[in-house]
Design brief:
mainly alpha, about 85% helix, about 70 residues, 2 domains, elongated
């Protein structure tokens, strides 16, 4: 329920104001924190390859969002 509420807030603020990027960043940080807690509770860790892959995917997503924003404003 909390996850759905957070996504709804991001969606509403995205349409209502320019603060959506900050909120999306905070939501991503919250999701990472939730994952870290889950891994810690189960005595698990991400490998270096998994961390590198996550960073690569984050960079690709940021680039895609940047291109999409440029395309919609052009």
């Amino acid at each position: 329920m909390a996850r759905m509420t957070a996504e709804l807030v991001v969606s509403l603020l995205d349409r209502a104001s320019g603060r959506a990027q900050t909120i999306k960043r905070n939501l991503t940080a919250l999701q990472r924190a939730e994952r870290d807690v889950y891994l810690a509770r189960n005595n698990m860790r991400l490998t270096r390859a998994q961390v590198a892959e996550e960073r690569l995917l984050d960079a690709q997503e940021a680039e895609r969002q940047k291109r999409l924003a440029q395309w919609t404003t052009a």
